Amino acid sequence: PHQFWLQPSNLGSTSSSRMPESSGLKERAIDWIIDVSKHGSKWWMPPLLILLSCANSLTGGTLVWCLGFMQAAMFTVVGMSNGKVGIVLAPLCLTIGASIAAITYIQLMKSSGADALLEKTGAKGSKFLDKAQDFAQNYGAAGLIFIQVNPLTPIPTAVLVVAGMIAKMDEVKVFSVLMIGKFLTLLLNSILVSVASQGKPLEQILREQLKGEQAETATNEAASEEKKDK
């Protein structure tokens, strides 16, 4: 269960032309996340997670290969570094970030129109967005929730809010249903991560999942890093 944030649905697809650049950036991001994970209980970590969530949503998921990856990993860091509070804190941070982005999208859509907004975010013409609009028109809020929790449709919640508005649904209803659904889904994931990771140090989990290191190697490297810090 603690591998959920590394599944393709969360990382998004990467075009072949972007692979060399994104691969190097991803490696640097992994090293940065492992280093920052030592400060997981600091006061500035939740605001950082909110910022990542907001940025990932505001870009319409076009940078999910970078921002989405970092957001998912930092979700685990904040969740596991703050005890029982972290189980609720991490989902709350992502929900707040998505809420800020969704409200921003709604206001921009009202002022500049749906086409201009979707074009700016790079979401215009997306097959996933078209699918979200179809589900919103045919099934209402339930259809959007299905798209939201479906691992095969990695669409930021803010974009789903816009899709609901394009389908002539009430914006308050769409916003409320999606945000509550997002929080509950993330809370379930957070609980599963916490249960599955019992007894394992956070850095070891990050090394195993982000770098593919074996448990023994990850433990040795983590111990080596601790000695260097001393």
Walk me through what this model shows:
- This protein is an all-alpha fold and 230 residues long.
- The chain is 76% helix and 0% strand.
- Helix 2 runs parallel beside helix 4 and helix 7 crosses helix 9.
- It is globular.
- The N terminus is likely disordered.
What is shown here, in short?
This protein is about 75% helix and about 0% strand.
Shape: globular
Query: What amount of the residues lies in strands?
Result: under 5%
Radius of gyration, in angstroms, nearest whole number: 18 Å
Element string (H = helix, E = strand): HHHHHHHHHHHH
Total helices: the number is 12
Structural class: mainly alpha
Unreliable stretches, pLDDT < 50, 5 or more residues?
1-19
How many strands appear in the DSSP assignment?
A: 0
Mean model confidence by pLDDT: 77
Main β-sheet description: none
Residues in helix, %: over 70%
N/C terminus separation: 34 Å
Key structural traits:
230 residues, mainly alpha, 0% strand
Topology of helices and strands:
Elements: H1 8-11, H2 19-36, H3 45-58, H4 64-81, H5 83-112, H6 114-121, H7 127-139, H8 141-149, H9 157-166, H10 171-196, H11 202-211, H12 215-229
